[in-house]
Design a protein that fits this description.
The structure holds two protein chains of two kinds. Chain A is 42% helix and 17% strand. By secondary structure, chain A is α/β, with parallel strands linked by helices. By secondary structure, chain B is an alpha/beta fold. Classes of the chains: A alpha/beta, B alpha/beta.
């Protein structure tokens, strides 16, 4: 059995995000299998403010020891914003600018010092996701025992030299999907690596009728679950949904659950329904109750939510600009891709008017998830990879 | 004990930075509470010094309040710019000596390499600094000898070799690989065909239930991330007071002209210090 540390910028039950949930389940899963697992993380829950909302110190949860360290705020947020603008404008950044950008959101010096003191006590140290201070600064402390789970997206940040250094400098990399793996090959010379995939818990049962009843959902609905923010395509999803309502007089609502402000336009009040943060079991029920799941995000390295949707027997409507989600949809046959708002509207029309076609798509996709992404399967792969570190 | 460590940790993972990291690890292992004040931006630290030279020395003195001991590493760029002339060097070293003396705390000075101190370890200004140290740690024999050659016997007695740089691993491990499918085609074909028809209708501006709707405003060009055209009920953004915005604009303008740049930077440093202390 190995002693493993997971280094993540945020960790906790109220932390929303695919990479964060992945780290949480990896840690808990390996702990259940008898590995000694610790999580080294910050006291922050909000990835905008990075405020220390949780107490620093040590706690234990589901067999995992969690060590929290306080974040130190950026000394110059204006500089960070200016570098961010220059990066998105395509300007090549200097190494100093790159470091200023990485340090501009959060720094966790106590975590760094703790790792400097204790890194050799761990057989392996898993860093995830790729673009945070906790990964880019701390990984070089003990590269020989570092495993990077980057959760890469094809975005400007991925092309920074500091990211290239982390990809090339880790002892091993675990990818969540084949497109992510291919993207990494374009970015850096890679060390030992494998596509372990992400893991999904299979709910024992679903309660779709109960879910509709509890939230007074009278019309059929499409679901969006996750962070409601621009980077995840939420504003475009609402705009597309609104246009489809007008164009096709759809008898569908859009129900959303998750974090961030939904910012529902007045025009769509009553048709876009924000249920806020729900517990995992209730989210599973939401997936089962939905007519389809809408995945507008281009920036996914695995996309747990589409897997959860397919497990619940619900088809997916997804943005074709996302390489990873497109790859899953094509491999599983469980998701229809749209390239623009018109196609999104027709996808919504299809699932609304022809529910049998939609259900047929989802049936084959459930098998796809069960064969490839059950946590037990994924943990087997991770354990095999960890043997080399033991 | 609370120890203020002034110096640069990684990145980069230089010998000097790893030497200081080894010292920090040692201090913490002895139960001390350590805080790091770094003269170099973007390095691992609890705080960073806002300005070089005499203002930086003042910041060290202010930051040291509440600590029991100071460990300070002399390094390129601190306490004077690497490009500084004799006067700049004297002002930087003198200001730092004055600042440390004003703290009244035991001070350990560190010099990783004699090359880290442009102008060498001698000179009146440097002597004043060495004299106030309780202990002087150096990074190697060469530096030790260089300092012994210029320091008074009394000051040279404080010299000692520092800890070796923290060794960070660089090993590598072997390689592996992994993994390897409905009637999606029909559904996709249907969506594409219907979308083509929609586009045709929109282009011609007519069709069942379409012409009377303001589609030109609703529909962005394909692929564009156009925001929703309706009235957005956004959360009110926290507004910055007008005076602060005006202040920032003035500072920005002053910073862009060489004549007023020193003034702008001085004001920035003063603002930072005022916020912190």
């Amino acid at each position: 059995m190995t002693k493993v540390a997971f280094v993540a910028p945020r960790y906790g039950p109220r932390v929303i995000g695919g990479a964060e949930a992945q780290v949480r389940d990896m840690a808990r899963g390996l702990a259940r299998r008898g590995h000694e697992v610790e999580v080294l993380t910050t006291c922050a829950e909000d990835h905008h403010t990075w405020a220390n909302s949780l107490p620093a110190g040590v706690e234990s949860e589901q067999g995992v020891t969690i060590r929290r360290f306080e974040t130190v705020p950026s000394s110059d947020p204006l500089l960070w914003a200016s570098i961010e603008r220059r990066m998105h404008a395509g300007e090549r950044l200097s190494p100093a600018d790159e470091l200023s950008w990485v340090s501009g959101r959060l720094m966790v010096p106590e975590l760094y010092l703790y790792l400097a003191e204790t890194a050799t006590q761990y057989d392996a140290i898993v860093y995830s996701p790729y673009l945070f201070w906790t990964t880019l600064y701390c990984l070089p402390l003990a590269p020989e025992r570092s495993i990077l789970v980057p959760c890469l997206h094809d975005e400007d940040y991925a092309y920074l030299d500091v990211v290239r250094a982390a990809l090339a400098g880790a002892a091993s990399i675990w990818f969540l999907s084949e497109p992510e793996h291919q993207l990494a090959h374009k970015l850096a010379p890679l060390p030992a690596h494998e596509v372990t995939g992400g893991g999904i818990h299979v709910p024992e049962s679903y309660d779709p009728d109960g879910f509709r009843g509890r939230y007074d959902l009278e019309r059929p609905f499409v679901l969006y679950a996750g962070r409601r923010e621009g980077g995840k395509g939420w504003p475009e999803a609402m705009a597309g949904f609104g246009a489809a309502l007008l164009r096709h007089a759809l008898q569908l609502d859009l129900v959303t659950v998750g974090g961030g402000q939904a910012d529902i336009p007045a025009l769509l009040t009553g048709r876009v329904i924000d249920l806020g943060f729900l517990e995992d079991d209730e989210i599973s029920n939401a997936f089962a109750a939905a007519t389809a799941y809408l995945q507008p995000s281009k920036n996914e390295s695995f996309s747990r939510t589409i897997m959860e949707s397919w497990l619940a027997g619900t088809p997916v409507i997804a943005n074709s600009a996302g390489a990873v989600v497109s790859w899953h949809c094509e491999r599983s046959g469980g998701g229809i891709l749209y390239g623009d708002e018109i196609e999104l509207g027709e996808c919504l029309r299809l699932v609304s008017e022809e529910p049998k076609v939609a259900a047929g798509l989802a049936a084959s996709a459930r098998d796809y998830v069960l064969s490839n992404y059950r946590w037990e399967t994924v943990l087997d792969r991770m354990e095999a990879a960890l043997e080399r570190f033991g | 004990m609370r120890v203020l460590v002034v110096g640069s940790l990684p990145p980069p993972l230089s010998e000097r930075a790893r030497g200081l990291l080894a010292e920090v690890v040692r201090l913490r292992s002895e139960g001390n509470e350590v805080e790091i004040l770094s003269p170099r931006a973007n390095t691992v630290a609890h705080r960073h010094i806002a300005a070089p030279g005499a203002a930086g020395a003042l910041e060290v003195a202010l930051a040291a309040r509440g600590f029991d001991e100071v460990v300070l590493q002399l390094e390129p760029g601190f306490p004077f710019a690497a490009s500084a002339g004799r006067a700049g060097r004297a002002v930087g070293l003198g200001a730092l000596a004055t600042a440390l003396k004003s703290c009244g705390l035991p001070v350990t000075l560190r010099l990783h390499s004699v090359h880290d101190l442009p102008g060498g370890p001698g000179g009146r200004a440097a002597e004043g600094l060495w004299a106030l140290a309780r202990r002087i740690e150096v990074g190697g024999e060469e530096t030790l000898e260089s300092l012994q050659a210029v320091l008074s016997p009394e000051t040279a007695a404080k010299l000692a070799l520092g800890l070796p740089p923290l060794q960070l691993g660089s090993g590598r491990r072997p390689e592996t690989a992994l993994v390897g499918g409905a009637n999606l085609e029909d559904a996709t074909a249907l969506v594409r065909a219907r979308s083509a028809a929609d586009r045709s209708l929109i282009t011609r501006g007519r069709g069942e239930g379409v012409a009377e709707l303001p589609l030109g405003e609703w529909l962005p060009s394909p692929g564009a991330g156009v925001p929703f055209p309706g009235e957005l009920q956004r959360q009110p953004r926290p507004s910055t007071p007008l005076a602060r915005r005006a202040g920032r604009a003035v500072l920005h303008a002053a910073d862009s002209a060489s004549l007023t740049r020193p003034l702008a930077r001085g004001l920035r440093v003063a603002r930072t210090l005022a916020r912190r202390y």
